[in-house]
Amino acid sequence: MEGLLTALDPRMPDVRLEIGLARAEVARRVATRAQAEQMAAIAATLREARAFPELHLGSTMLSPADAIAFAERAAIADLAVRLSLAEATVRAQAHEAETLRGLTPRIWEAFRAGEVPAVNASVVASLVVGLTEAAIVAFEEAVLAPAATLAPARFRAIASALRERLVTGPPAERHRRAADERRIVVEPDFDGMAWLHAYLPAEAAQRAMARISQAALQLAAAADETRTLAQLKADVAADLLAGVLGAANSVGVTVGVTVPVLTLLGGNEPGTLEGYGPIDADTARRLAGHAPSFHRILTHPISGTVLDIDRTCYRPPADLKRFVELRDVLCTFPGCGRSARGCDLDHTIAWADGGSTSAANLASLCRHHHRLKHETGWTVTRDNDETVWHSPTGAVRNADPPPF
């Protein structure tokens, strides 16, 4: 196709334009069909795992119900490794596929045919949950055409409004269920910055924003204040959350910062902020020198490593545990993004098999992947200082390197 466009008479831009538009439309339909096929395959694989758990488990003493649950977990991890996806994404795609296939079959078939974009199909899957059978039929009939023609933002607005007219149940009860999902998420950004997202009940969010705005306006009234109102609000929010402004119930927190020794002496090598990544040398020096709530860890100026001392006890002492957390940064299962600070420490070579309690034999595993290693056919080996994971179905994947 590229060759055809190149060979066209340069005096025919209208033809080239039509061909380019047609290519984009065809490519979108092909990509949509491929996405639907992937989701269908994921859902089918998990159905097989639930039906035949022995394919994913080694010798086990699990009850039948637990065997099915762990087989599904093992299959999700297997798919995530093979497809380079997060396990949450695999689970979400399976859920969406099953929801669409079971509750809105016409939308599902239109999605598989490439007519309904993946993002609009996802919206449908999220909105039909909780509707009665009659309401689902009415909802699907009303959104079938808009799902194929409207851009995502407009479609979500229309579909959400329709759902509000069809949903049953007291609004207070629906709000209570939604409030159970409240959470805060940190999203790293560039240039030493990050987004902090809070999903809160509306009244709590409004009260928090009102307090932030009030404090920012008071600061803005100072004669020597040079920050914009937006900057002041951001600074006030950060200070309130960190307890800097002396909140009555503020909680002391500790965050790790790793600083190369030459940076402390004035070098420009970046430091590493736990849970975030590289930070500039000036910030690293400031945190290491003046913030008592930060652990200060000096790394070798050439290799960047910390000298490890082997231990002879099973349970890692606090200093070794802290070192492994800062070294691994995240759970060491391929693709997992759980912070190492909230993980278990696992002996790669089991203590019972002669494995030592040392940094070389300890790895951070979140509770989910720790149990997966011990309850299913997933295994891990060490090969030339590389950690290698083996799935029950034969997939082999090296542990991901630290993100920074």
* Biggest sheet architecture: 4 strands, mixed
Rounded to the nearest angstrom, the distance between the terminal CA atoms is: 41 Å
Radius of gyration: 27 Å
Proportion of residues in β-strands: 5-15%
Shape: globular
Enumerate how many helices there are, as a single number.
Answer: 15
Helical content (DSSP H or I, runs of 4+): 40-55%
Q: What is the arithmetic mean of pLDDT?
A: 84
Structural class: alpha+beta
Strand order of the largest sheet: 5-4-3-6
Which regions have little confidence, pLDDT < 50, spanning 5+ residues?
Answer: 246-251, 305-311
Instruction: Give the beta-strand count.
Output: 11
Account of the 3D structure:
- The chain has 404 residues and is an alpha+beta fold.
- Strand 10 and strand 11 form a beta hairpin.
- About 3% of the residues have low confidence.
- The strands form four sheets. Strands 5-4-3-6 form a four-stranded mixed β-sheet.
Features:
alpha+beta, globular, 404 residues
Summarize the structure.
The protein has helices at 2-7, 13-51, 64-83, 87-103, 105-112, 118-128, 133-149, 152-166, 171-179, 202-220, 229-242, 261-264, 281-290, 318-328, 367-375; strands at 183-188, 194-199, 255-260, 271-273, 277-279, 294-299, 344-347, 362-365, 379-383, 386-390, 396-398. The protein has 404 residues and is of the alpha+beta class. Helix 6 (118-128) packs antiparallel against helix 7 and helix 7 (133-149) runs antiparallel to helix 8 (152-166).
